[in-house]
Each structure stands twice: as structure tokens, then as C-alpha cells.
Design a protein that fits this description.
This protein is mostly helical. Helix 2 packs parallel to helix 4. The protein is rod-shaped. The N and C termini lie far apart (about 70 Å).
């Protein structure tokens, strides 16, 4: 690593840093390293010829990396060497960590490390911060936020385009899930109509009666039968499920019956597993 000079700083240094070729950029950083400002670093990182060697040189200039803005910029640049980026990730703010985890241009180990630190910060975030994070979080972080007891946070997670059905099913099937959160999921316009989600809610003894009672009429016969005999469910739910079974016509043994498991009924569920009737 070269020792930066203490010489005269040219007035046009920012412009030269932005326009220099690869060799010229390295020479400028070596010559004026200690004189570089936050604005200069931004110009360097905008230069198309910036490479890992230049960025590593910047990472050793204490007057620069003492600034959170510089550490953030270096950690989030796609050409930053992995060891340098990982060195700065730990001390970033939660919002910076969120941006890193969502940026697929960055190296996977850097993104995973940022997510690990972000998950460690969750208990210390305010409700407003959790809501902001929930709207943009990765599936891993979104899954953790689904367990938050605050309905406002969970509602924000449900609207996250990165949330997967697999992650959501882990919540609605959880034996210690909050009843009010389960009801919130059942009323969500995106997830509530999905058959797999509705079935998991109906099978979870933690689901409120009103949630299960609204779902039972929509279940296929075989699933309704399983709820009716589910030992972990309240007798109230089991009896209500049996009442629905008793009220349904007995499936025909030949031809196409009117049972909820008949081909006609099954076709009412589209490719996303939603009820269309």
C-alpha cells in the first residue's frame, strides 16, 4: 500500500477522479489519499474504471473510513473486495443492512453477513422501523418478522412481494402462533383466499373460532373430515366441521358427484390455490 502524499490538492481533483482511466485513478488515489473527501470518494466510486485495488486503498485511509457514509458506500459497492465489505458491514445502520441484503449484485457472503447482523438488531428496532423493514425485507427476515406480536408489523410483511407461501405456512402452522395474527392472515386479500393457507389456518388449534368457522364451508370434504376428527382441536370446532359434513350431499359412487373433492369442485381452485367460488 502506497503512502498518500500531503502535497497540494488540485481544485479540479473531483473531476479528475471521476474521469481518470484505471491507471490514472490509482495514481491520483495514491498521491492525494489523505486529502480525499467524502465527495471525492463518491466520484471515485462512480468512475467506471474503479476496481478492488483502488477501493482497498481507500479502506486503509483512516480519515475516510471514520465516516459512516464512506463505510456504507464501500460496503455497498459491487467491486469492493469481499474482506473489505465484510469488515464494514457490522457497524452499519439497520437500513443499510437491509439494502445490502436485497442487492443481488453484491457477493452472497456479504449479503448473508448483513442479514445476520440485521436479524440480531430486530429486537431493538422500533415498531415504525420494523414496519419499514417488513415492506422490503428478504424472505428470511420477513419470516422472522411474521412472528412479531404487533399486527401492524405482520400486516406490512403480508404486503411484502418477497414473502413466499412457504414462509407464511410456517407461521400459520406454528403451534404457538398468536390467534389475532392468524385471523389477520385469513383476512388478507393476497393470502387469505389461498387454499393451502386456509387449510393450515383451519387445522391450527390456535386459530380463533371465527377464523375457522369462516373457512370450514370452503374446505374439500377430505380436509373437512380431518378437521372433524382432529384431537387437538376444540370440540366446538370439531362439531361445527361435522355439521358441515352432515349438511353436504353424500358423494355419488358413479359419475361426477357434487362433493367438494369432485373434479368440478377441484377446478374451482386456480393455479395459485385460490378459491374462485
Amino acid at each position: 500500500m502506497a503512502t498518500p502524499s500531503q502535497g497540494h490538492r488540485p481544485d479540479d481533483l473531483p473531476q479528475r477522479l471521476r474521469r481518470a482511466d484505471r491507471r490514472g485513478l490509482r495514481l491520483l488515489v495514491e498521491e492525494h489519499g489523505r486529502q480525499l473527501t467524502l465527495g471525492d470518494v463518491r466520484q471515485i466510486l462512480l468512475n467506471p474504471f474503479v476496481d478492488g485495488e483502488v477501493i482497498e486503498e481507500l479502506s486503509f485511509i483512516r480519515s475516510l473510513v471514520s465516516k459512516i457514509e464512506v463505510r456504507r458506500a464501500l460496503a455497498r459497492h459491487r467491486r469492493t473486495p469481499e474482506p473489505v465489505a465484510m469488515r464494514f458491514v457490522a457497524n452499519l445502520f439497520w437500513r443499510d443492512l437491509m439494502e445490502i441484503t436485497a442487492d443481488t449484485r453484491l457477493r452472497a457472503p456479504v449479503r448473508r453477513l448483513a442479514e445476520r447482523y440485521l436479524l440480531q438488531r430486530l429486537p431493538r428496532l422500533t415498531t415504525g422501523e420494523k414496519i419499514s423493514l417488513a415492506r422490503r425485507a428478504t424472505p428470511e427476515t420477513a419470516g422472522r418478522l411474521l412472528l412479531d406480536p404487533n399486527p401492524r408489523v405482520v400486516r406490512a410483511v403480508l404486503g411484502n412481494p418477497r414473502l413466499t407461501e412457504e414462509r407464511l405456512l410456517l407461521l400459520v402452522s406454528h403451534p404457538e402462533a398468536e390467534p389475532r395474527i392468524l385471523h389477520l392472515v385469513s383476512e388478507d386479500p393476497r393470502w387469505g383466499p389461498r387454499y393451502s393457507v386456509s387449510l393450515a389456518l383451519a387445522r391450527n388449534p390456535r386459530s380463533p373460532f371465527r377464523t375457522v368457522f369462516a373457512i370450514l364451508p370452503r374446505l374439500r370434504r377430505r380436509d373437512l373430515e380431518s378437521v372433524a376428527v382432529q384431537a387437538s382441536h376444540s370440540s366446538v370446532v370439531r362439531h361445527r366441521a361435522q355439521d358441515h359434513l352432515d349438511a353436504r350431499p353424500v358423494p355419488e359412487t358413479t359419475g361426477v358427484g357434487r362433493d367438494a373433492d369432485s373434479p368440478i369442485a377441484v377446478q374451482l381452485i386456480d393455479n395459485r390455490g385460490e378459491f374462485n367460488a
